Amino acid sequence: MQGYTVPLSPRGQANLAPTPPWHYAGTAVAVEFFADPAAAEATLPQGLTLDPDSAGRGVAMFVDWQYSAGGEEYLDPARSQYREFLVTLDARWNGTPVAWCPYIYVDNDAALARGWVQGFPKKLGSVHQTRAYPVGGPATPAVAAGGRFGATASTAGQRIAEALVTLEQPVDNPAALMNRPVVNLRHFPRLAKGQHDQPAVHELVMAVLDNPAVGEAWVGTGELSFLPARGEELADLSVQRVGKGFRFHLAYTVDDLKTLTDYTL
Amino acid sequence: MQGYTVPLSPRGQANLAPTPPWHYAGTAVAVEFFADPAAAEATLPQGLTLDPDSAGRGVAMFVDWQYSAGGEEYLDPARSQYREFLVTLDARWNGTPVAWCPYIYVDNDAALARGWVQGFPKKLGSVHQTRAYPVGGPATPAVAAGGRFGATASTAGQRIAEALVTLEQPVDNPAALMNRPVVNLRHFPRLAKGQHDQPAVHELVMAVLDNPAVGEAWVGTGELSFLPARGEELADLSVQRVGKGFRFHLAYTVDDLKTLTDYTL
Amino acid sequence: MQGYTVPLSPRGQANLAPTPPWHYAGTAVAVEFFADPAAAEATLPQGLTLDPDSAGRGVAMFVDWQYSAGGEEYLDPARSQYREFLVTLDARWNGTPVAWCPYIYVDNDAALARGWVQGFPKKLGSVHQTRAYPVGGPATPAVAAGGRFGATASTAGQRIAEALVTLEQPVDNPAALMNRPVVNLRHFPRLAKGQHDQPAVHELVMAVLDNPAVGEAWVGTGELSFLPARGEELADLSVQRVGKGFRFHLAYTVDDLKTLTDYTL
Amino acid sequence: MQGYTVPLSPRGQANLAPTPPWHYAGTAVAVEFFADPAAAEATLPQGLTLDPDSAGRGVAMFVDWQYSAGGEEYLDPARSQYREFLVTLDARWNGTPVAWCPYIYVDNDAALARGWVQGFPKKLGSVHQTRAYPVGGPATPAVAAGGRFGATASTAGQRIAEALVTLEQPVDNPAALMNRPVVNLRHFPRLAKGQHDQPAVHELVMAVLDNPAVGEAWVGTGELSFLPARGEELADLSVQRVGKGFRFHLAYTVDDLKTLTDYTL
């Protein structure tokens, strides 16, 4: 049996995700927000604390992704493209500023599988962002001052987030957009009776991104709403105010992970 | 009751498509093909003949569209973005070279409704094309010689078309990509018994595109397959050979239509 | 060219809907409601008035449908099954009690096409209802007193309706569930400039149902909410109170239509 | 943080699957098949061998499921209903006849998550089966001799399986339909560099079903095709001939799992 994730199979072609490295390119619409600090703190796993310098600060990101592994997977866009909505919250691990991801949604099963392996707690959702076309005209914003980009996310037929970014100027230091490493909780339960609360995998991990790149980054104003929905807790973050808005392209490769603490019993 | 298409409603906000003008911006992956001329001819409506200079020639296009009317609809991308796969065949109307569209698929109901009004015989489908990200890296082709773009279309869970374009050079005369006006058959049946074969609308029409624009157009080699599927006749076109491949951005506005012949009884 | 709806094609297999008759079988969860009469009246087309005996009364129905024409289409369930959410309002045509359908949503393009031909103003939506399984157990309600059935509808990622029905007893006279004929507005616009407000088809029609059947009909209590959503006007109906809840199976055949008034210019 | 699967959250409402027990009710269309024994054997994990008494025999099942945990989840059908296509192959574990599931597809993220925890290697797919309505008419088969039920499965826009069952008679001993326990491989990879081939979870497990029930079971003839598709290996099973066809309802509860061998390093 060959493969990396399920399903393992004779030829190793059926698995949702092949052995890394996994390469990504994407376009992001992002809005900075300030949640109720207590609500943000309530989402943190053991080992993380709120960042005292920016308690409650977070970023909501909508990304149109394209993925490839070693086989020009981007030529099969029905499988390799997907849309993602995620929230990160400023936190500290052992004094280091990190970004904690409590909620994330994608529209593709392979992305969900890779996410779980990385510790991203992915569910399925429907995610959209306004796109810019270089050909211009009334159907597209320009990537220029005044350009406006909308974004929405829904899950199980319920709208959970809406955002709007209005560009003002290029970002001076684009690399700063990815300066906080993401910390996730890899978690996979046991099903044997009596062990439902003793997960088989439960470890705090830090993402390792190779060759990160940011391009055409613009900053401006942002608007953002998290909407209450049955079976979701995103709106519990209780956004108090909204900060800057961003739009940029990004790329990186995933081939590794750093375990911070293994809580598995 | 207000509105342009159904549903008409008190505030005129619920209709699938508002009164034109309708603005479009899109990115296209296209492959020229040569069908069996007899098969191509069999799809033509009364009033069109095959183009004797290019009998059987057609173009398969996959487009990632964004739409807007007068209200910045592109800020609600869950409604205003859609993906389209269509086929056109070289034809003649009254001596004029035109493009006839026998089959077209979209993934959005508003696009389907606008299409029917224009005479495009739209069905629902799932359509994808490789995307180029300016940030580079292994997950994206470059818009440059050697860049490769895949595209696929499916309907009702069946794959109906697969294409691959490899860029070679910029197109010298991009406007030529849109030089054949599209001719459609607006058709809307009657349901009253005894009138099932007497449609309420049945007219040959020529599309009118305002402010057409083409940008960043590249040409290269193409690969294309039409696959047999239950309830579809696309593969009956029986592609004999494939011509050039293209990738480009396009934009235009729709606010009018020219009736060539009204066959309504 | 053969076929009934678009696309017309050489073999007549590609059209969204073939020539009627069209046969239907379905399972419905329905809730009676009382809207603000002025809001209900505002949705009525020319030729209909509110029913003075039940001004504002309506029914919200969620139906899991299966369709067939002459070719055992139900053996291709990926195309022939669909889910529908619709609202009807009590109205009068020329003194006759009728049901007017202002809003309706389906998850299938063939159903949308047939609907437009009938005058149902269908848009795409995502619709679900609780199902009863005869095998029993904690994952299914019983079709019996106390059995509870939920239902939801969403469009463009936004929840627009939620319902709950609790069964109390079998319906004494099931045929009464379909005693008001449905009146629709067949409407198909023109696109030629200057004629955007002069539709090519605009006629008030009454549905004709052959061989209507209702089975296993139960009545009980109902709960219902219409939720505001961008691009929708359903919630404008402003439900004042909710009446009975129903669950039943139904079947009929569509092969005809009666034009009440043709308003086409 | 509360919850069973990801995402863990403050209130424990956001997780894809809550702590078991999980209750299921479903309707199945199933076809027995005989694969190339070598191809079937190639899918087996360490610890299983082909059943020498029925080498290559398998069952393809299409199920319309409804799920509930402790909270009447079946009243939220947008989340609790899903459709599934799976294949099982006759195998032996330690001399015991078991059913091994190499491939399985669902259309719901919660079902995918529960499946992974059970060891079912679920991917997303689009699955449909003909439904029987007690109201009768031309749009529904009867659950009676001669009744015909179609079923299809697709993934990533590619059709992978098609089946047809024609009923002949009730099943004498319905419990026999579930007499082989399902054996799965729970598998969850590591991402740390150098450990990509050392999964964090890799254990052969046997499903434990509480309160299994089968109802209204019919047997008859079956037809079945597995179709080749990019990124899938189902068709490699190379069906040599098809056996009986079945249609039945089933229900059970999952609250436990038996580990046969833990291969985790």
UniProtKB/TrEMBL annotation, chains A, B, C, D:
Give the protein name, as stated in the record.
Acetoacetate decarboxylase
**Which organism's genome codes for this protein?**
Nonomuraea maritima
Annotated SUPFAM superfamilies: Acetoacetate decarboxylase-like (SSF160104)
The domain of life is Bacteria
Molecular function terms from GO: lyase activity
Task: Name the Pfam families for this protein.
Answer: ADC
InterPro entries for the chain: Acetoacetate_decarboxylase (IPR010451), ADC_dom_sf (IPR023375)
